Structure formats: structure tokens, C-alpha cells
Amino acid sequence: MNSDDEGCFGEGLTTGGARDAAERIAVEYEPLPSVTATEEALSSAAPKLWAECDNNECFFFALGDKLAVETAFAKAHHVTRIKLIFNRVTAATMEPRGCIAEWDDHLGRFTLYVGTQRPHTARADMARRILHIPETQLRVVAGEVGGSFGMKGGHYPEYALALWASRKLGRPVKWIAERGEGMLTDDHDRDHISEAELALDRDGHFLALRARNISNIGAYLAPGGIISPTMHLGGLAGTYTTPAIHVEVSAVFTNTTSIGPYRGSGRPEASYIVERLIDNAARAMQIDRAELRRHNTVPASAMPFKTGLVYTLDCGEFGENLERALAMADYDGFERRREEARARKRLRGIGFANIIEQTSQAQGETVMVRLDPGGTVTVTDDDEIPTSVGLICTG
């Protein structure tokens, strides 16, 4: 390193200088055994990520009436089976993650300016579990969040590190992720292997549905890591009268980035499974796909209707929606259009998706506001240390 090189490590170090310096560092790595494929994680031959977890299974989750499902399958006229692979995905937001952290020595309080969808959750987790301070000592300001679709709902190590550094240095600290960093460290999502079966009687009525999922949650269970594997399994019921549904989920550790919510996070997977099963059953039983759905759609007259898994539907004109969609798509004329396309050496297809979904997870927030006789307002949420604020009334 020459004298000019040494200068780049002084007080005038710039982002570009730091990057140039980092690129001059040569690191020799000794590869360790790893597992990244979802199904391989449960293999007895797979490397174990954590000593406390002998089979790489982070958690096992089951939902539904297993006995009723097994009874229905035992008397089924036809059973359709599928195996689906939901590949891993991540966001590529126009605005990467970033934050500005500031420690106020006079007030004894941190302020974090960050693009997050869940400022209250981020504050609670960072204050209690990482910084070990009361929540009143951490203020989170979420302005323009930018693109996210769930990925910016979690809190990340860089935010807590920026807060720590701001106090250590006695000055504000800014951190912005580069695109390459984001692809590696932003929460990923999906990454499931699903095997599912649909049991039908001789007339094509659904008797039961069962599924088993292996869900790759990455090397660590992130705060939102249970959402995709477990929170939207009720979508397997769809808008159909399937009387019994049972699903099992095995969440596994692998040497990959942790998962978190992104773009539906479990909702599209559940709907895709049931709709693919129906299409495959229709082909195998030689029943029109639309007709098979008509047979099994929850009628408006049955409301409120308890589905085979999780949901109770209080209203809905699902049959009417189906008929309107078929008419608008000219379903009866589709085969003619397919033949015309084939004559021009083109392929034409048509798909079905009758979807009902849970709009959010159960993350309610409770706030209590108390007006004291001395003119003070005390605001308390259900887990937070009370914060008292002076109140001046006019008029």
C-alpha cells in the first residue's frame, strides 16, 4: 500500500473510498457443509445447522380434522394427487432499505428514521430484545416507506447496528443498502414443496382435501417467518364446500436467507394448490372444469357457511361470480378460439381461480388514553411502559 492508499483510511474516508478499500481485501474461505434445497433439509444425511435441532425441523404445524379426512379418503371414488414446487422469491424495490439513526444524549433517547411498514413492532422488538431499553427510549419515524409489499415489514440487523453506532460515535449514522446487499439480506419468501390430494365421490363432489408442506424458512426464524408457512392455510378451502381438510407443515432450517412476508405470503400458494387439484380431477374424471366447480361452490343460500378449514363465510355470491366470469370470458366459445389459434401455430389456454383470502394477520394494537386531573395525558399500549405527556388546553 502506498502513501496515497493510506490516505483513504483517514477522516476523509468516503463511501467510494471504503468500497475501494474493501475490494482490495482478499479473503480465503474454507467451505463448510451446507444444505440449501428444501426437501434435502430433512434428510438424515443433511448437515445440521443448529446443535439443538437434530433434524433441521424448526417447527411442525398441523391444522384441520385429520380423522374426518382419512375417513373421507377411505370411501372416495377418485383421488387426485399433485406435487408442487413454489420457488423462492424476493423483492427488488425501487428504494432499497435504509435508515438514519440518532442518539440524543440530552434526552437519553434514540430516534430511528426508517422505511418500515410496522414501526410499532420494530420499536418493540429492537428496544426490548436487542438494545434492552424501555420503548420510551426509542422513537421510530416511518415516513415514505417506498416499495415493499411486505419485505419492509420486518426489522433488520442494520437498523439496530446504526442505533448502536450513533450512540458510540455521538453523531447521526446513515445506512443505505445497495442492490446486491438487498438481494442477499432482504427477507425472501415462498420456497415450499407441497404434496396435496383431493378426494371425490362418483358424481364429482369434493369429500376431503389434505396437504403436506415442507417450508424452507432459511437459517433463522425471522419475526415474520411463520406467515408464509402457516397463516393462510384457510385458503385451501377456497369458495368450495369441501367438508374436511387437513394440512401439515414442516418448517426447516437451511443455509439460506430467512423468509418473511412478500406479495401475499401463503395466500397464492393455498389457492394455487386447490385450483390445480380441481383442474387435474376434472381431466381425470372427464368432467368439464367449470361444471366441476359449479358442483362444489358454496351457494349463497348456505350462508353463513363453515368451511372445511378455518373460515366461516358470512356472505358471498360465488356461484354468480363464476357464471359472470365464464360469460365475460366466452367460455363456451373457447374451444373454437383454441382451434383457430392452433391453425396459426399458436397456443391458447384458459385458467380458473376462485379465491378468497384472509386480508391480514392477527396483529391487533390496543391503546389506552387517560386524562389526569392535573392536565396530563397518559397514553399506554398493551405492552408498553406508559408515556406521560404534558397537555395545554385552550379555548
Topology of this structure?
Blueprint: H1 3-7, H2 15-23, E1 57-64, H3 66-74, E2 78-90, E3 98-104, E4 109-114, H4 119-131, E5 138-141, H5 157-169, E6 173-176, H6 179-185, E7 188-200, E8 206-218, H7 227-230, E9 244-253, H8 267-285, H9 289-296, E10 305-306, E11 312-313, H10 318-328, H11 334-343, E12 367-371, E13 376-381, E14 387-390
Parallel strand pairs: 4-5, 8-9
Antiparallel strand pairs: 1-9, 2-7, 3-4, 3-6, 7-8, 10-11, 12-13, 13-14
Low-confidence stretches: 1-10, 383-395
Percent of residues in helices comes to: 25-40%
> Into which percentage range does the β-strand content fall?
15-25%
Assembly state = single chain
How large is the count of helical segments?
11
Number of strands: 14
How much is the radius of gyration in Å?
Answer: 27 Å
Helices and strands, in order, run as HHEHEEEHEHEHEEHEHHEEHHEEE
User: Quick one: biggest sheet?
Assistant: 5 strands, mixed
Distance between the termini: 71 Å
Q: Name the strands of the widest sheet in spatial order.
A: 1-9-8-7-2
- The coarse silhouette is globular
Q: Please state the average pLDDT score.
A: 89
Secondary structural class: alpha+beta
Describe the structure.
By secondary structure, this protein is an alpha+beta fold. The protein has eleven helices and 14 strands. The strands form four sheets. A five-stranded mixed sheet has the order 1-9-8-7-2. Strands 5-4-3-6 form a four-stranded mixed sheet. It is globular. The N and C termini lie far apart (71 Å). Residues 1-10 and 383-395 have low confidence and may be disordered.
